[in-house]
Design goal:
Blueprint (H helix, E strand, L loop, with lengths): L12 H21 L3 H24 L5 H25 L5 H24 L2 E3 L2 E5 L3 H17 L5 H17 L3 E3 L3 H4 L1 H14 L1
Antiparallel strand pairs: 1-2, 2-3
Helix pairs in contact: 1-2, 1-3, 2-3, 2-5, 2-8, 3-4, 3-5, 4-6, 5-6, 5-8
GO molecular function: phosphotransferase activity, for other substituted phosphate groups
Protein name: CDP-diacylglycerol---serine O-phosphatidyltransferase
Family: Belongs to the CDP-alcohol phosphatidyltransferase class-I family.
Length: 202
C-alpha cells in the first residue's frame, strides 16, 4: 500500500494564512523572551489580523473545510490563550495566585473554543452572535491594554493585568451575546493600530 502525503490536500490559501499566524505567534514569544516588547506586540497584532483574513479567504475562494475549521481553532488556542498567558507570566505574573488566574484564562478559552466548535454562533434577526466573548476579542483587549500600560509606564502593571485576565476568564464563558459584527468588534480596527502606532511614537 502506497503511503501519500495526505496533508498536502489541505494546503490552500486560508490554511496557509492560519499557519502563518501560528508562526508569528511563536515568534512573538521568542521576542518577549528577548525583552523586545514593542516588536513582539506589533507582530502579535498580525496574528489577530490573520485570524480574520483566513476566514475571509476561505469564503472568498470557496475553500471552507472541516480541516480548516479545526486548524483555525487550534491556532486560536495557541495564539489567543497560550501566548497571552505566557507573555503575562514572563512579565511577572508568576505568583501562585497569578498562575491560577492564568490557568483559569486558558481553561476558559479552550472551553469557549470547544463550545463554539459544537454549537457555532446563534443567529437572531439576521445577526450572528457569539456565546461569550471570543478568544480573538479577549486577546485584542489584552494587546491594547498591555500596549497602553507600556506606553504610559503605569504603575501596578501586575495588578492591572491580573484583574484583566480574571475578568476575561469569566467573560469568555459568561452567558452573554457578542455581536460578530457589532461595534465592540469593529472598534478593534481602530483601537489596535492606534495602540501599536502610539507604542512606537512615544
Amino acid at each position: 500500500m502506497k503511503r501519500k502525503f495526505v496533508y498536502l490536500k489541505y494546503l490552500n490559501i486560508p490554511n496557509t494564512i492560519t499557519g502563518c499566524s501560528l508562526v508569528i505567534g511563536f515568534i512573538t514569544l521568542t521576542l518577549i523572551f528577548q525583552q523586545e516588547l514593542k516588536l513582539a506586540l506589533t507582530l502579535y497584532a498580525f496574528t489577530i489580523l490573520l485570524d480574520r483574513l483566513d476566514g475571509i479567504a476561505a469564503r472568498k475562494f470557496g475553500m471552507e473545510s472541516d480541516f480548516g475549521k479545526e486548524l483555525d481553532s487550534l491556532a486560536d488556542f495557541f495564539n489567543f490563550c497560550i501566548v497571552p498567558a505566557l507573555i503575562a507570566y514572563f512579565l511577572g505574573l508568576n505568583s501562585v495566585l497569578s498562575v491560577l488566574i492564568l490557568i483559569a484564562y486558558i481553561l476558559s478559552g479552550v472551553s469557549r473554543l470547544a463550545h463554539f466548535n459544537l454549537e457555532g454562533m446563534e443567529e437572531i434577526e439576521g445577526k450572528k452572535y457569539f456565546s461569550g466573548i471570543p478568544t480573538t476579542l479577549a486577546a485584542s483587549w489584552f494587546l491594547i491594554t498591555l500596549s497602553l500600560l507600556e506606553l504610559f509606564n503605569l504603575q501596578h502593571l501586575h495588578d492591572v493585568l491580573l484583574l484583566f485576565f480574571g475578568a476575561l476568564a469569566v467573560l469568555m464563558i459568561a452567558p452573554l451575546q457578542c455581536n460578530k459584527n457589532g461595534l465592540l468588534v469593529k472598534s478593534l480596527y481602530l483601537l489596535i493600530p492606534t495602540a501599536i502606532v502610539l507604542l512606537w511614537l512615544f
